[in-house]
């Protein structure tokens, strides 16, 4: 039996981490981390809108955080993260984690460089973390196998052509017979290929897949 793959649009998300040849922070420890948590800022490439920033800060001290301010490379305020917007992550044998995350338009004149987060706790302590950002739009993935709209025998993997400068990929698979239900989210993968878990796709099914 065969199944169909719906035509899909492709999303590409740059990691925001320093690549080869980019300036490095003058620190021997990972500048994303401080005693309060972890900071990261992405340049997101989505097909239906201009590129935008997605800053986030994760911490196990969520109730102790008073404010999270993100600054540009020249120390100007970029955004203050909304502390009412967060994802909760349960951790086995560890305190639960909160991930504060916002989406903001990239302002005119924004430059590449080290963006920073200034975290203030309720007890008055302040911590800073940094992430290097290169503002650019990545190319869209191409050469998908199976191809968009194809009716094919059940595959054991999904493949696509490498995207220049992409550090990682993530694949989302939906079951279109089941109200477009998300049935699989891959881990971050470095190669342009996803080995499918046995039994995930069913003969005669109707699926779509999206590459971030």
Q: Would you give an account of this structure?
A:
The chain is mainly β and 212 residues long. It is 0% helix and 41% strand. The chain has no helices and 17 strands. Strands 2, 3, 4, 7, 8 and 9 form a 6-stranded antiparallel sheet that branches. Strands 12-1-17-14-15 form a 5-stranded mixed sheet, with no helix packed on it. The protein has a 4-stranded antiparallel sheet with strand order 6-5-10-11, with no helix packed on it. A hairpin with a 7-residue loop joins strand 7 and strand 8. The protein is globular, with a radius of gyration of 20 Å. Residues 1-27 have low confidence and may be disordered.
Give descriptors for this structure.
212 residues; disordered N terminus; five-stranded mixed beta sheet
Question: Could you give the topology of this structure?
Answer:
Elements (H helix, E strand, L loop, with lengths): L1 E4 L6 E2 L24 E8 L6 E8 L5 E7 L5 E4 L5 E4 L7 E5 L2 E2 L7 E9 L4 E8 L17 E3 L3 E3 L11 E5 L5 E5 L7 E3 L10 E6 L1
Parallel strand pairs: 1-17
Antiparallel strand pairs: 1-12, 2-3, 3-4, 4-8, 4-9, 5-6, 5-10, 7-8, 10-11, 13-16, 14-15, 14-17
Span between termini:
29 Å
How large a portion of the residues is in β-strands, by DSSP E? 35-45%
Order of helices and strands: EEEEEEEEEEEEEEEEE
Instruction: Report the uncertain regions.
Output: 1-27
Average pLDDT works out at: 84
State the share of residues found in helices, binned by percent: under 10%
Cα-based radius of gyration, to the nearest Å: 20 Å
Pairing-aware structural class of the strands and helices? mainly beta
Number of strands: 17
Please count the helical segments. Answer: 0
Q: How is the main sheet built?
A: 6 strands, antiparallel
C-alpha geometry:
globular
